[in-house]
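[Solved] Which block belongs to which protein?

Original post:
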Amino acid sequence: QVQLVESGGGLVQPGGSLRLSCAASGSIFSINAMGWYRQAPGKQRELVAAIVSGGSTNYADSVKGRFTISRDNAKNTVYLQMNSLKPEDTAVYYCNSEVTPPNARITRRYWGQGTQVTVSS
């Protein structure tokens, strides 16, 4: 019953920037981790960046130094700031969240619907 709503995708020129947002809503007690994945045509879905509740982050080697993941716990929202974008960054970007529901000692993973990022001249 958790919904992840993504926004911020679009068309940008090489070297440009975009900021993706993912807001989680629904039956949430806590969010343990959130991350961004991407999938380009003909390629496997890959982890781009992740952040856990303690604030630790992890990035794919291909985006280190260019992308920054952050979160606003009060809003249950995670962001992905993407700078110095390259054509190879073109993909559908998906938000993923590991959530603990209320009155439960389990975790569940949820996916957003995806937002298209296109880097082209």
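(Second protein starts here: sequence line, then its structure tokens.)
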Amino acid sequence: QVQLVESGGGLVQAGGSLRLSCAASSGSIFRFNTMAWYRQAPEKQREWVAIVTSIGRSNYPDSVKGRFTISRDNAKNTVYLQMNSLKPEDTADYYCTGTYYNGGQIWGQGTQVTVSS
């Protein structure tokens, strides 16, 4: 059973940067059709922030476009989320997810990001 393990969260000042990592244990990320990052702030719904396909195509919502970059290192079975120009409203728990070709999906346990003003 593949597990996704996020890391890299923490406390950063507004305008700063963080890089989140999502490592797939016991398996290749090639088994996933897409991999994505979501976030959930307190008392808010979970929202999508970045997605990358198996061939490296990425997409972002307007709220993070130009500031966040998703990438994948197939050799390391890891997906990254580079977050620049962070804002207090980016504060949330960030989750990595992998979607299989059959539509099944798994989630990581999340990593907390706090952006202070």
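Accepted answer:
You had them paired correctly. Confirming on the second one: The longest strand covers residues 32-40.
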